[in-house]
Amino acid sequence: MDSLVVDHPLAAALLTTLRDERSDNAAFRYALRRLTQMLIYEAIRDAPVEQFEVRTPVATTTGVRLQQPPLLVPVLRAGLGMVEQAHALIPQARVGFVGLARDEKTFEPVPYLESLPDDLSGLPVYVLDPMLATGGSMVHTIELLVTRGATDVTAVCVVAAPEGVAALADSGHPVRLVTATIDEGLNEDRYIVPGLGDAGDRQFGPR
Ligand SMILES: O=P(O)(O)OC[C@H]1O[C@H](OP(=O)(O)OP(=O)(O)O)[C@H](O)[C@@H]1O
Ligand SMILES: O=c1cc[nH]c(=O)[nH]1
Ligand SMILES: [Mg+2]
């Protein structure tokens, strides 16, 4: 599986704000939005473009646009903090939604929302979820997408655990990963260490 760890001093500084337990909900949401911008820039760097003619006030020249604007899929709740910024960068993108809450005893994702186009063939999909821990939530989401014909999926995360990266690779699905860091691992509660805590709670308060 292809994976990209975005290595940039400004991304590292924003990640530090997210990790810092003193960052309140508003500061966390703000840093997540800004870091999402950097992750999306890198994630879309090699996307195919098409050329078209554009007139400036002075002359005619060649412009470019994305050949195929993607579908953005935030995984609720935590992915909601990424979708507004991603959509601002790619205004032509469509948006689908998946809602999952991890059962904190079994660590399995419990689905509560699925709002996706029926046919995803030929459409690049960017799944937005800041946390890739066991990988269960991301693999579940990718299965929903693959069932609808998706063959080009990018998981855009902020913090990934090696266990989650392995789960994505072992899933055999057509996915690549873009993340700001791959951390040390998971603790007994399957939280990422050092991580940043619960990305949903840190934006919106406890469920
Ligand atoms: O890789 P996994 O072990 O599946 O864990 C990662 C999932 O856990 C978090 O969501 P959570 O279930 O806490 O829901 P929330 O966004 O509503 O807080 C996170 O946003 C991922 O979706
Ligand atoms: O560290 C973790 C693991 C799962 N979900 C989170 O929000 N954080
Ligand atoms: Mg949570």
UniProtKB/TrEMBL annotation:
Cofactor binding notes: Binds 1 Mg(2+) ion per subunit. The magnesium is bound as Mg-PRPP.
Annotated uracil binding sites: 192, 197-199
Molecular function, one GO term: uracil phosphoribosyltransferase activity
Pfam families: UPRTase
Cofactor(s) demanded: Mg(2+)
UniProt pathway annotation: Pyrimidine metabolism; UMP biosynthesis via salvage pathway; UMP from uracil: step 1/1
Presence of keyword Nucleotidyltransferase: no
Reaction(s) catalysed (UniProt annotation): UMP + diphosphate = 5-phospho-alpha-D-ribose 1-diphosphate + uracil
Ways its activity is controlled: Allosterically activated by GTP.
CDD domains reported for this sequence: PRTases_typeI
UniProt binding sites for 5-phospho-alpha-D-ribose 1-diphosphate: 77, 102, 129-137, 198
Domain Phosphoribosyltransferase: 5-205
Listed InterPro entries: PRTase-like (IPR029057), PRTase_dom (IPR000836), Upp_B (IPR034332), UPRT (IPR005765), UPRTase/APRTase (IPR050054)
Coiled coil: none
E.C. number(s) listed in UniProt: 2.4.2.9
Keyword set, alphabetical order: Allosteric enzyme, Glycosyltransferase, GTP-binding, Magnesium, Nucleotide-binding, Transferase
Stated family: Belongs to the UPRTase family.
Function: Catalyzes the conversion of uracil and 5-phospho-alpha-D-ribose 1-diphosphate (PRPP) to UMP and diphosphate.
The protein's name in its UniProt record: Uracil phosphoribosyltransferase
Gene: upp
